[in-house]
Amino acid sequence: METSLEGDDPPPYVLVNDAEEIVQPVILLLVGHFIRAHTVDGTPLYELSRDIQASSTSEALLSQVSLERLIHNVRVSASGMPRVSHRSRHIFELKHLPPVISTGYPYCLDAMSRHSIGNLALKSASFPRSGFKIVKIQPEKQDGFPKGYRARRESLKEGEMLFDVVKKRGHYEWMHPDGNRIAVDDKTDDQHRLVVTAPVTRKTMDAMIGGWCLRIWRDSIKSKNEPQKART
Question: At a CB cut-off of 8 Å and minimum separation 6, what does 192 contact?
Fold first, then answer.
């Protein structure tokens, strides 16, 4: 389905969606299960399969969450009018693995697109630092099992770090491995916000959005578990 645009020129982020496209700094808001641009029209740029902040404890623990990028392509018709076509691309599955099958990375992102940066995981920072890292992960071959045996507990090997996320007074700073800050993640008036402060590639943006959602989901699960632990 296509929709015509009249009047103002379309925003620049809707023109192309290649993995290596450079995305300019932008402010993003998590609104329900949509991630929207902080603009007058609040264009939805990503969509989660459900609200990661409002899920019940049992739902959050037992299911995974899909993350899709919403693609808005602008074309000019024969009459010279700009037309917008909308589609989505499934980029990640957010997963929370229970301890019985967790491999040291209970919060993971499974890549669902060949254009993505790969499978990722959230790794908590070591004491005394406060924050976390988003790292690449891949299955690791295990030795010592009989031929043809497949262990239920998958082993994962940590790869390169994509983001070093440092917690500071009331916010997180997302750092590139080269030490440069590329985003600030905060919450004001119960509104989660990601302020991207430097140009990044599209696939890096997708990975950062996935990691941001994973962090919010993790904190939501933890906050729901705390009252239960207090009663036991």
Answer: 29, 30, 53, 185, 186, 212, 216
Closest CA to 185 of 51, 30, 67: 30
Give CA–CA dist 222/214, Å, rounded.
Answer: 12
Kindly state the tokens that stand for 47: 């969509």
Model confidence pLDDT, tens digit, residues 147-182: 554 444 456 778 899 999 999 988 999 999 999 999
Token pair for residue 104? Answer: 């040291």
User: Is the separation of the CB atoms in 201 and 21 below 8 Å?
Assistant: yes
Are 67 and 119 contacting, i.e. CB atoms less than 8 angstroms apart?
no
Amino acid letter, residue 96: H
| Predicted TM-score of the model (pTM) | 0.80
Classify 1 as helix, strand or coil.
coil
Domain that holds residue 193: 2-231
Whole-number Å distance between alpha carbons of 84 and 76: 9
DSSP states of 75-118 as a string?
A: EE-TTS-EEEEEEEEEEEEEEE--TTT--S--EEEEE-STTS--
| Contact between residue 182 and residue 200 where contact means Cβ atoms under 8 Å apart | yes
CB 118 within 8 A of CB 206: no
Alpha-carbon gap, residue 154 to 213, rounded angstroms: 24
Q: How many domains does the chain have?
A: 1
| pLDDT bracket for residue 14 (50, 70, 90) | very low
Query: Looking at 17-21, 114-118, 127-131, which range is the least confident one?
Result: 17-21
Say what the pLDDT of residue 169 is: 87
